[in-house]
Amino acid sequence: MLNEILFPRRFTKTTGFWARTLRRISKYGFVRRGLLAVVSLAGGFRNRGRYAQVQRYCMFVGYPRSGHSLVGSFVDAHPNAVISHELDALDFVERGYGRNRLFYLITRNSYEFGKVGRSWTGYSYDVKGQWQGGYNEVLTVLGDKKGGMSSRRLESDPELLESLHSMTGVPIQIIHVVRNPFDNISTISNRNKIPLEEAIEFYFSLCDTNKAVKAKSDDAHFLEFRLEELVEKPREIVQRICGFLELEADSGYLSACEALLFEKPRRTRDSVQWDRSLIELVLVRAKEYDFLEGYDFEN
Fold first, then answer.
1. Domains in the chain: how many in total?
2. Which tens digit of pLDDT belongs to each residue from 180-191?
3. 15 and 107 together in one domain
4. What pTM value is reported for the model?
5. Residues 149 and 160 sit within 8 Å (Cβ to Cβ)
6. Distance between start and end Cα atoms, the chain
7. Whether 113 and 32 share a structural domain
8. What is the tens place of the pLDDT at every residue in 128-156?
9. Distance in angstroms (rounded) separating the CA atoms of residues 131 and 77
10. Which residue has the higher pLDDT, 277 or 114?
């Protein structure tokens, strides 16, 4: 019943008295943290041998609704990789968790996410016939998909990356997925029920953090691409991701990833009333970031 602790709010269905009870008490943050502390200590120790061959840690920086869930699902579907979904691994780094404890929570999160359907914000992230929630003999890549929150944590504490590197003892591979900023900003406004002006400020604060992370990273440890590229040429981009993580990608795996893709990204910007002055404001501010070059309201 670990899924009742990992996913108390969003995923779990009522499955019995103890499941309901765990889900209810896990909604309280301090209770959930205590339960995860106990579970991770025991699980990390018991499974420590499984993590000995991990060679890279994969994390995401970015923005709400940029495609990180999709990319995280692709990596998690690889036979030699496990990526947790919305675990918020940097929170556990801040709390002083060790390598095996964090790795155990990552692997269990991936497994439990599969048990509750791999659905998120109305989309299915089930890569058919692949290895989501598990791995094939050798596990070389572990990581967590929590792009926007990771950027926010790094904004508050830039040293978290070094702490993560010291704790895991392996290279940190950072993936930055970008999409049209008007869609990101519209999603931030809709989800948080805030005016576009506030959403714009929040979005560009994330851009500042991601720009700083990129400046401190070399190409071997920072991969950047656009969601629109992934939709247009999925096999090429998934191969790039696998190459970045030093994972081999066979044709069956690539085809399964390709089958999950939608035809084109949803234009969230059309769900919000944009006036011309705010459009111009975003276009002007976007010029400060090379990864936003070429975007406008229509394209």
1. 2
2. 999 999 999 999
3. no
4. 0.89
5. no
6. 46
7. no
8. 999 999 999 899 999 999 988 999 999 99
9. 5
10. 277
